[in-house]
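Chapter summary example: a protein plus octanoyl-coenzyme A.
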Amino acid sequence: MDYQYILFTKEEGLARLQINRPQKLNALNMDVYREIEAVVAICEAAPDVKVLLITGDNKAFAAGADIDLMADGDIVMAQELTDLSRRVQERLADIPKPTIAVLAGYCLGGGLELALCCDLRIGAENAVFGLPEINLGIIPGGGGTQRLARLIGVARATEMIFLGEMVKAEEALHLGIVNRVVPLERLEEEARELARKLMAKPPIALRSAKTAIRNGLSMGLKEGIRAEQDAFALLFGTKDQKEGMAAFIEKRKPKFIGR
Ligand code: CO8
């Protein structure tokens, strides 16, 4: 498939999706979301994809949804846009493989909301984060009020959403928006190194951990712990559990096969 706004590569277990709309700081329109959805579907179905990286360029991951598109929009347009972005983001959040958002430059509005759907986020030192929707007379509509509050806490998310100010990479690290911050020139390599580490882990256990963590966010503590217990027990039906424990006892590195 040919993409207008996406660069997509797949090699050695690693899929890489780059948003590519540099004239508009990678602002997200309907077609960008649709292309992201197509790539996520491919990665979901492809057994040779172990980890998915989502990135932009050095200036922007994405400076939000396309304001030109929304400026004259009505309620129906807003519903259609958010129906689409919600569907795409849910699919990304639920993909049963690790996802890493690799973030340089502006990561704003719908861009930040997209990054929040990934499992891990690495920021470059030049990255800035924000939900500036309030300054446009709207609120975050791509899950920002929910996912950011769950990630960094209600008080901190409320401040970011009410004020609509940008926070720099170091502060984003302190807030817990990103897992780590690295120099811009090291960003891609650090992301690939992290991906390689994840690819050496047992994929079924990774998937199980992801499901337990994500589903647990919408459960009570007791229910979440019960779900974790069941997922834990099921892993004893995998060859990777036998291999992991045998390798420990035999003092060697495990070799996981995803079975
Ligand atoms: N939409 C459309 N065009 C944009 C956007 C955007 N979000 N961001 C930047 N651009 C365009 C600019 O208009 C400019 O185009 P042109 O060269 O034709 O004038 C080009 O990109 C470069 O931008 P600037 O000249 O403004 O670059 P600066 O370095 O001066 O400023 C900023 C960079 C600070 C990032 C500035 O561009 C900015 O404030 N952008 C808007 C940020 C914003 O408000 N984002 C939130 C948008 S609303 C949103 O995301 C709602 C999500 C809703 C849910 C998801 C459903 C889709």
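Key point: Strands lie at 6-11, 14-19, 51-55, 60-62, 99-103, 106-108, 120-124, 128-130, 167-168, 180-182.
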